[in-house]
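Chapter review: from sequence to fold.
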Amino acid sequence: MHIEHVAMYANDLDTVKNFFVKYFDAKSTELYQNPKSGFKSYFLSFDDGARLELMNRPSMEDAPKALLRTGFSHIAFNLGSVEAVDALTKQMHDDGLCVINLPRTTGDGYYESCVIDLEGNLIELMV
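The token string follows.
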């Protein structure tokens, strides 16, 4: 058994899609649209086979996202090396994204940094 995909709602589908394409080399499907419901989505695929569905529909609720909350907390990307974590963290910082934790070794042995994406979601860059 494996997780087939994870999905998240986004206010600006194209901007969020482009974020994952730019920083994580995601491959995107064409935009799916349901004209009756207004639902729209992209499926993003990553090199290891993981998939992320980005979704949007009219009248979504967009409550503030506390970092410490119940439910799904973050997406973690294993970049394969300490150098890759350092480089992508620097690139994201230089591009104006909010880096909330600089690269460091955590108590459970990961080397990681934490970045907030364009819609307030936590992204871990790790190895």
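Two observations follow directly from the output. The helical segments are 13-24, 82-94. The domain at 74-126 is CATH 3.10.180.10 (2,3-Dihydroxybiphenyl 1,2-Dioxygenase; domain 1).
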